[in-house]
Amino acid sequence: MSPRDDLGVSDMAPIPVVGRGAPGKPLLEIEGLHIAFGARDRWFEAVRGVDLRIHAGEVVGVVGESGSGKSLTALAIMRLLPRGARISSGRMRFAGTDLLALDERGMNRLRGSAMGMIFQDPLTALNPALPVGHQIADSIRTHQGLGRAAALARAEALLDLVGIARPRERLRAFPHELSGGMRQRVMTALAVANDPRLLIADEPTTALDVTVQAQVMAMLDRIRRELGIAVLFISHNLELVAEVCDRVAVMYAGRVVEGAVVEALFEAPRHPYTRQLLRCIPRLNDETGPMPTIPGLPPRLGAIPGGCPFAPRCDAAFARCTAEAPDIWRRGDHMARCWEALR
Amino acid sequence: MLVLILRRAGFSLFSLLVVSLILFALTRSIPDSPARIVLGDEATEEQIAQFEADHGLDRPVLVQYLAWLERLVLHGDLGRSFTTRLDMNAQVTETLPVTLELVCIGFVVALTISLVLGTLSALWRDSPVDYAARLLAVLGVSIPGFWPALVLVLALTVERDWFPPGGFVPLGEGLAEHLRSIALPCLCLSVFYMAVLTRMTRSSLLEVLGQDYMRTARAAGLSRPRVLLYGLRNALVPVVTIAGVSFGHMFGLALIIERVFNIGGMSRALLTAIQQRDYALVQAVVMMFTIIFVVANLIADLLNAWLNPRLAARAA
Ligand SMILES: Nc1ncnc2c1ncn2[C@@H]1O[C@H](COP(=O)(O)OP(=O)(O)OP(=O)(O)O)[C@@H](O)[C@H]1O
Ligand code: SF4
Ligand SMILES: [Mg+2]
Fold this sequence. Notes:
The structure holds two protein chains of two kinds. Chain A is built from twelve helices and twelve strands. In chain A, about 30% of the residues lie in helices and about 20% in strands. An eight-stranded mixed beta sheet of chain A has the order 6-7-8-3-9-10-12-11, with helices on both faces. A four-stranded antiparallel beta sheet of chain A has the order 2-1-4-5, covered by helices on one side. By secondary structure, chain A is of the alpha/beta class. Chain A has a domain at about 125-195. By secondary structure, chain B is mainly alpha-helical. Helices cover about 80% and strands about 0% of the residues of chain B. In chain B, helix 5 (about 90-125) packs antiparallel against helix 6 (about 130-140), helix 8 (about 175-210) crosses helix 10 and helix 11 (about 265-275) runs antiparallel to helix 12. Chain B starts with a helix and ends with a helix. The mean pLDDT of chain B is about 85. At the A-B interface, helix 2, helix 3 and helix 6 of A face helix 9, helix 10 and helix 13 of B. The complex binds adenosine-5'-triphosphate, iron/sulfur cluster and magnesium ion (MG). Iron/sulfur cluster binds near residues 311 and 314 of chain A. Chain B: InterPro entries: BPD_transp_1_N (IPR045621), MetI-like (IPR000515), MetI-like_sf (IPR035906). Chain B: It is a multi-pass membrane protein. Chain B: Belongs to the binding-protein-dependent transport system permease family. Chain B: It holds the Pfam family BPD_transp_1. Chain B: Its main location: membrane.
């Protein structure tokens, strides 16, 4: 029996406090991840060299416009890329294991156990034909070899943990009988069912109503603290990221263009793209006028310009930007891929 | 769930009543009185009136219907043919089991093969198995049902005598001979449905495999067979619906197949009845088919309600 069997908080093992920039080996380490789409002779890269590091217990945010490769990166960690996509190069180590060297069975031992994932749309992400308790219990039985009754009892404790009232009754509910917020709580229960060390949350609140978003976010934050889980938090919402993350990676056109601890990123952003993103955060007291957006569109896949891919939209661009791909500027653990930062 | 079962069963019963009423009205609205058919053209008006009075044919149609229904429901009695004076229950009990056996075996064969083939072809998309399944699906749907029957008769029975060219050997005369006599008819019966159901299984499962919840199941680390089970639970819904309809539909094709293979099933009863203008027997046979059709659909509905509770919730 592990001390966390009943998921009570009081008798939990103390969680090692891991601050930002924690020393020691990272829990997850991604280096030069490339993901390519295509068939036979037509290939294009959607992710073009992502580096990412997450330490135990840390919350790392990933932001960037639609299509920048956030979800693909997350799915690659679970080795659940969509049909037609493949990891064309790179290294991924998780808790000392080379993820790319694992076979399907090895990955299945990690999926849903040491790493859990929450998807954006809780309506479509749960199986409509099975009671939610059944779905959670199946995952528990797969990884912990418990019997049916024991697994259901644990599923009930999990539903309680994610803040669902009357968990015993809810075990028998089908997804369509639950509200969006409830479904996302169920998704969370499923993702943390087997004590993960890493939780990947891909826009977990984007599909929810604004009021529900805050509740679900608070629940997620509470659970990851209680259980001491490291989180990879993908979001469009910079304010949310500022609230919950320790470090942030900003992605553009399949690359991390700036990475830093959250204060540095928000107070002293070095990449013009990050600065422009920050300017687009809607002010709560300013309800008139359209939400500001960055003019122009990100480059299309397969048509990414040479030099800096952000150059056509950059307000700080100069001659060198279109000629040469930018080098990396680095100070401590703050990095940016930008010529202007290097000047 | 119980409410659902009662609702569906009630609806089935209602459709049976409606069909039987229409059927009854149709057979009674034929200009030739059964009396005229039985007694011939020379019969006098008095003779005919006497016959109609004897058989209750002079009563209003609705009264006749209720009497017929009462006998059928309370005593399972289909009545007696006016023309042959034969007990129709005897005719039906003699011929229905033969047809039922052909259809049931053909159905199980079609369903089993199509579920396996459809699933494999969806899982191994664009593999040789998938191409074979797709070819079978196209051929099976586009070739009329009796054509493979004729070809098989020629190739396997006339050319070389692997199977008897026709005739029905009852089970009482030996299992092997019995099976040999029904193997080809059952196969012919199943080809079309095999094709339809394979195609349905494949496309439905392919659609389900792309769903978010399948990715969730994999993200939870479930084993491949269990992930597949998760998918089939959703993918089988349209397959079950079509299978339910197919089962009833197969009785229609069985009539042709029985003729080709010279098997004395329901087709013999029905065709004799039609030739002799024995409307009461036609009515009895069609009623049997209707009952089978409605029951098959009821079972399919209930199975689907179990597979996919959301459908059930929507219906309730
Ligand atoms: N199944 C697919 N087939 C082809 N291209 C795809 C597929 N999935 C993603 N892509 C492409 O890969 C790129 C990155 O996709 P990804 O889903 O990672 O973006 P994202 O950053 O998560 O965006 P969003 O914020 O909209 O979720 C996109 O440009 C998209 O067009
Ligand atoms: S490298 Fe040049 S174009 Fe690219 S972000 Fe920096 S300043 Fe802008
Ligand atoms: Mg995404």
